[in-house]
Amino acid sequence: MTDKRKDGPEAGPLATSKRQRGPAATSVAVVNTSVAQGPLIQAIQRSSDLQAPIIQLSGHTGEVYACRFDNTGEIIASGSLDRTILLWNTYGANENFGVIKGHKGAVLDLAFSRDSRTLYSASSDATLGVWDADSGVRIRKHVGHEDIVNSIDRVRRGPELLLSGSDDGSIALWDPRTKHAVEYMETDFPVLAVAFGEGGNQLFSAGIDEDIKVWDLRQRNVVYTLPGHADAVTSLNVSEDMQFLVSRSMDNSVRTWDIRPFAPESRSLNIYDGAPTSDVEKNLLRASFSPDGSKIIAGSADRTVVIWDTLTRKVLYKLPGHTGSVNDARFSPREFNVILTGSTDRTLMLGELGKG
Fold it and tell me: What domain of life does the UniProt record list for this protein's source (predicted)?
């Protein structure tokens, strides 16, 4: 799991953005694509406040592993093999207004605090970073893991807490105000993905052992597992209403799960196909829900981004544009039809979904 996540070269100068401009009101966008027929290109009414329907953000000198909107949807953060975190404006000219340096290894995952003033990062240098999102100054360096930190998540309610998963087989719970971990939970295999559940008392972890583990933080133990994947699970994401979980696996599938307290014993809901992984590249491809839970987005090793209808499992879009594997994909919390992707091709794509 580690060949694509080792240290990269030092970052270059302040990055710039490449923007494909279009008219203010009407432009060209990809709408209602069909997997069989390919994308349908047509002139449509613009559907977002972005300056153009499709925008390429260039500046990283290594593969982009993680990309996130802040909670206002106005700021973008991206993490890369080049060891840097770049900060971008979502709207207007999409300036790259900040470069954060400090990690000694690839930046593999990112999360913003609830007030968007703090940025958290996970790195192959076995540390977590806590950064001032305005100045880029490091506030704290969390040391404790003994190997690559693959995943990070921030609790959504209650006191601010962080969760991390590492190749050392441990899951760590952190208070961003203190240097050392609050708690470690040990597993038998490398942990590739973690996520907080309801109220911060429940957490999810997954890795190369295929089954998703559900933990009760108060008891510090596994209360049940979610079997079903046939290969390593590379990402976990909990819906905004905290009732459902989406997982991405190297078995070429995306799955959803019912994580409500009194759900049926078989919690598996749906399986989504159409976003293949790669036997060559072992990057941790990710999937996530839209803010309203109606859609799921995932990156793919075939250089496309796939969006499904959560309930029907129908592929709504299969979007080209990148020239390498798409490692991360997210919906904007401000405009649900705006998406962000990060790729092995060293770029990010910011774009709007057409109405069609």
Answer: Eukaryota
* Residue 189, pLDDT score: 96
Identify the CA nearest to 84 among candidates 35, 143, 131.
131
CA dist., res. 12 & res. 294, Å (int) = 39
Q: Is 242 helix (H, G, I), strand (E, B) or coil?
A: coil
Question: What does the longest C-alpha to C-alpha distance in the chain come to?
Answer: 57
What average pLDDT does range 185-211 have in this prediction? 93
The pTM score is 0.87
Pick the range with the lowest mean pLDDT from 37-46, 109-118, 291-300: 37-46
pLDDT band at 47 (very low <50, low <70, confident <90, very high): confident
Domains of the chain: 56-352 (2.130.10.10)
In sequence order, what are the residues at sequence separation of 6 or more whose Cβ sits closer than 8 angstroms to the Cβ of residue 236? 151, 193, 194, 195, 204, 205, 206, 212, 245, 246, 247
Beta strands in 20-161 (DSSP E): 26-34, 38-45, 54-58, 64-69, 75-80, 85-89, 96-100, 107-112, 118-123, 127-132, 138-143, 149-154
Instruction: Let me know: does 212 contact 257? Beta carbons within 8 Å.
Output: yes
List pLDDT tens digits, range 220-230: 899 999 999 99
Start-to-end CA span in the chain (Å): 40
Average pLDDT in the chain? 88
Which residue from 189, 187, 154, 119 is spatially nearest to 163, judged by alpha carbons? Answer: 154
Cβ 41 vs Cβ 339: under 8 Å: no
Q: Are 8 and 83 in contact (CB under 8 A)?
A: yes
